Each structure stands twice: as C-alpha cells, then as structure tokens.
Amino acid sequence: MYLTIAETAEYLSLPESYIEAMVHDNKIRAVHDGEQYLIYREQFNQHLEQMEKAKKQLAEYLSEPIPEDPDVKDED
To answer: Domain Helix-turn-helix spans what residues (predicted)?
Structure first.
C-alpha cells in the first residue's frame, strides 16, 4: 500500500516537512506520480521490525553482568 507524504507523516508521527526532506535526500524511497510522492508503507514496517530487534539485542547485552577479571590483583 502506498501513502502520501501527509499520510506517511501521520503514520510515523513526524512532521510533513521532515518526511519531504527525507524523500528529497533519497533517505526514503518514493515514487512521483506527477502530482505527489507516494511512499511504500512496508519499507517502514520492515525498518521498525529491525529496530525493535536491535533494541531487544542491545537490552539483552546491557543486562548481562560484567564477569570478574581473574587477572586483577591488589598491588598494594
């Protein structure tokens, strides 16, 4: 399903000007039909899924305890 810039901004809860800038900078893929830019919604779903996966992996990594270093000695 394709969305207009206004619909995309609403879908992502971002300002329309930001979405337009991202389209013009080629950071968001879009098709121009002569009147308006149309953006494929699934590209965001895939991106959001990847971001959630990365957040989960980072949270797991940060929650692991730091192992004690056996080489640490009190040199006093």
So the answer is: 2-50
CB 4 within 8 A of CB 37: yes
**Distance separating alpha carbons of residues 58 and 50, to the nearest angstrom:** 12
12 domain residue, yes or no: yes
Q: Both tokens of residue 56?
A: 């989960």
Q: Which domain holds residue 13?
A: 2-63
Residue 48 forms part of a structural domain: yes
Does this model's pTM top 0.70? My answer is: no
Closest CA to 39 of 13, 52, 20, 25: 20
Paired with 2 in beta bridges are: 40
Each residue's pLDDT tens digit, 40-68: 988 877 878 888 999 999 999 999 888 77
- Give the chain's domain count: 1
Asked whether residue 25 is assigned to any structural domain, the reply reads yes
